[in-house]
Amino acid sequence: MFRSVNPATGAEIATYPELTPAELDAKLARAAAAFRHWRTTPLEERTALLARIADRFEVERERLARMASLEMGKTLATALAEVDKCAAGFRVYAEHGPAMLAPKRQSLTGGGTAELHWLPIGPVLAIMPWNFPYWQAVRFLAPAIMAGNVGLLKHASIVQGVAGLLEEMVTAAGAPDGLFQNLAIKSSAVAGVIADDRIAAVTLTGSEAAGASVAEAAGRALKKVVLELGGSDPFIVMPSADLDAAVAQAVKARIQNSGQSCICAKRMIVHADVYDAFMARFSDGMRAVKAGDPFDPAIDMGPLSSFEQRDTVLEQLEEAKSLGATLLFGGEPTADGAYLSAGILTDVPLDSPLMHEEIFGPIAMVFRAADIDEAIRIANDIPFGLGSSVWTRDEGEQRRFVRDIEAGMTAINQMLASSPEAPFGGIKRSGHGRELGPYGMHEFMNLKTVMYAADAPLGARTNALD
């Protein structure tokens, strides 16, 4: 049984039954049957379905957003924005998907021609977290549908209401039976699903431990896996930066989703020449953050996703302070729910455990860097490599950061955010593979090389997906 709890109040919202082994097997059978049909469905039918799903998200946006706010505490405004982003994601693949799947042709040195075709591979299992409960699922699902694959979602236990609504939206849009299904199963059942011959591949967004476990299971089954794991993203501010803009975005980047985002800016690395000015303004901004009822439009952030998550952050703060870090302010439980006030840590030892962990809450770590070399060294001195944000108007410094920061993504003079068109993912212990854009769709497709003799008639060369 799964229990959904409102983190703003601690009140139970609903309970959801766990699938029995027989029910799980039936869902896997439906997925396999759906793939046999969907893999040959014309591209125009796929794009039409994606557009209809986007329509459902737009029509139901208030109901969808309210469920996310209730189950994991994000503000209603950000939940609405997340739903809108999902609709946009479906429309991007509906509009641009066929071009992403167009075959490529090239001449061969020995004569003749090769064509490269992207073909679907089968049911994809997605194991997704609670922090962006709709968008995390959609960024796997929209390209999967466009590719001709089918999707199975093992969602986080605390957002089963959201998971059910996701399946409802796809079904209501007229999707074939089994094209997308929610699997209400516990983590202990995941390895068995991955090993099942009806599953072609797996994608996970989550912790390092979850990623290692899923990768191990996928490796044993010789199945493709994409992992988007943790991050402790640097936010670097250099002397030439627009300081007002940098500070405003630093606050937003740290407290978005109550600090519960893999690409939240977690470590502010500030050049010594502007450190004091940045800290004065950044401290004012973080002190002004209002936490409260997610449905109150006047507040900046809601509670953390659960009392357990809040307590985890509190434990991290206590350990950091015991090792010499200074908590300037914040990090205080407030109200009756799973709230935590925004705060700033300084003097964090570079060899402390916190440098190898992810603070999933509204606490910023701030570091002083003497020059660009030290800024890059601090930025890279972690096991993660997901995102980064750099603030400088010096083009030479921009090129240096692009080249030398060890991360899958770098934003220049803006806060890092995901977009349906741009590949998303990291390196090092932040995982491997990419989501979104054409590359995210191609991760779970068969790149088939087709050889044609030099005298092959042109009519023989065609798009296998037409």
Layout of strands and helices, then pairs:
Elements: E1 2-5, E2 12-16, H1 21-38, H2 43-59, H3 61-72, H4 76-100, E3 104-107, E4 113-120, E5 123-127, H5 135-147, E6 150-154, H6 160-172, E7 180-182, H7 190-195, E8 201-205, H8 208-220, E9 224-228, E10 233-237, H9 243-255, E11 265-271, H10 272-287, H11 307-322, E12 326-329, E13 343-346, E14 363-369, H12 372-380, E15 384-385, E16 389-391, H13 395-404, E17 411-412, E18 427-428, E19 431-432, H14 437-442, E20 445-452
Parallel strand pairs: 5-6, 5-8, 6-7, 8-9, 10-11, 10-16, 11-14, 13-14, 16-17
Antiparallel strand pairs: 1-2, 3-4, 4-20, 9-19, 12-13, 15-18
Task: Describe what is shown at a glance.
Belongs to the aldehyde dehydrogenase family. With 466 residues, the protein is of the alpha/beta class.
Architecture overview:
This protein starts with a strand and ends in a 14-residue tail after the last strand. The strands form five sheets. A seven-stranded mixed beta sheet has the order 12-13-14-11-10-16-17, with helices on both faces. A six-stranded mixed beta sheet has the order 7-6-5-8-9-19, with helices on both faces. A three-stranded antiparallel beta sheet has the order 3-4-20, with no helix packed on it. Strand 5 (123-127), helix 5 (135-147) and strand 6 form a beta-alpha-beta unit. It is globular, with a radius of gyration of 23 Å. It has two domains: 2-229 and 430-460, Aldehyde Dehydrogenase, Chain A, domain 1 (3-Layer(aba) Sandwich), CATH 3.40.605; 233-412, Aldehyde Dehydrogenase, Chain A, domain 2, CATH 3.40.309.10. It has 14 helices and 20 strands. The chain has 466 residues and is α/β, with parallel strands linked by helices. The model has no long low-confidence stretch (mean pLDDT 96). The longest helix is centred in the first third of the chain and has 25 residues, at 76-100.
